[in-house]
Write a structure and sequence with these properties.
Strand content: 15-25%
Structural class: alpha/beta
Distance between the termini: 26 Å
CATH topology: Rossmann fold
Radius of gyration: 19 Å
């Protein structure tokens, strides 16, 4: 990651994620569980979990690879690594560890792992090709990478609808689709070409479609709207237009989310790719 991105995750972005960590993890928890089932980790395997955040997937992998296996979680945000370590201690999970480092540049040892995984943690590198080339070096010959990344925004109602509503009241900053960001790997053709250029082979993409609770399970439309404005940094965009605009936009967002509210949660369609690639050695 660039110095700016590193500072953001070590500061504002990491703080924001930690502040809303239960809601974030509840929202994407089902996808993480499905990813672990898809990867089918086995006892005895050595695994590295990239962009591990607060460590829920890392701890899940630790249970799957026991006995005899181990897992290392790596993340650039020190406050999230601290949270992960506290959770590890509370769980008494002694076959996992956490490292605060930039995976694009970190040296975790040549061939140190059988497998590499990530739940939405690999789309934010400054240079994806350099990052995956470096991370491939951590894998033994024949080892694989299995990670989740978001599919195209139009197939993710939770972000497409939010963008449409907020865009009625303020100009939503647009990311470079090929630069760091959650939808960087939405195009499987471009992502596959990058992975092959990084030295991986046998690249495949499996779509995973599932509804997910916006703002976490148990959030009302009003709570989900507040989560969007605060955790996705949309409130600041609106505040530049004035307090009245913020109130109007929040009300419009609540109205747009209400049709998705059922069984106590705002359930919205989402689509991600489960990507698998092999290190040929």
């Amino acid at each position: 990651m660039s110095d700016i991105e590193m500072e953001d995750w070590a500061g504002e972005i990491g703080d924001r994620w930690l502040m809303h960590i239960d809601r974030f993890e509840s929202m994407i928890g089902q996808i993480g569980t499905a990813l672990l089932d898809f990867a089918a980790f086995k006892p005895g395997e050595r695994v590295v979990d990239v962009g591990c955040g607060g460590g829920p997937t890392t701890l899940g992998i630790a249970r799957a690879v026991a006995p005899g296996g181990s897992v290392t979680g790596i993340d650039i945000a020190p406050q999230l690594i601290s949270e992960a370590e506290q959770r590890r201690l509370a769980a008494g999970q002694d076959n996992c560890s956490f490292v605060c480092a930039d995976a694009q540049r970190a040296d975790l040892g040549a061939g140190a792992f059988d497998r590499l995984t990530s739940r939405f943690g690999v789309m934010f590198f400054e240079d994806s090709l350099a990052a995956f080339t470096n991370m491939r070096g951590w894998l033994k010959p024949g080892g694989d990478a299995v990670f989740a990344c978001w599919g195209p925004p139009p197939e993710n109602t939770w972000i497409a609808l939010v963008g449409q509503v907020i865009g009625q009241f303020a100009e939503v900053p647009q990311r470079d689709p090929s630069g760091p960001g959650p939808f960087r790997f939405a195009d499987p053709q471009a992502t596959g070409a990058m992975l092959e250029a990084a030295g991986f082979s046998d690249v495949s993409f499996t779509p995973h479609r599932a509804e997910q609770p916006l703002g976490g399970a148990g959030s009302s439309p009003a709570e989900a709207a507040g989560f969007v404005l605060d955790s996705l940094a949309m409130r600041g965009v609106l505040e530049a237009q004035g307090g009245v605009v913020v109130a109007r936009a929040e009300a419009a967002l609540v109205e747009a989310l209400t049709p998705y509210y059922r069984d106590g949660s705002v359930m919205m369609p989402g689509m991600s790719w489960f990507v698998r690639a092999r290190n040929p050695g």
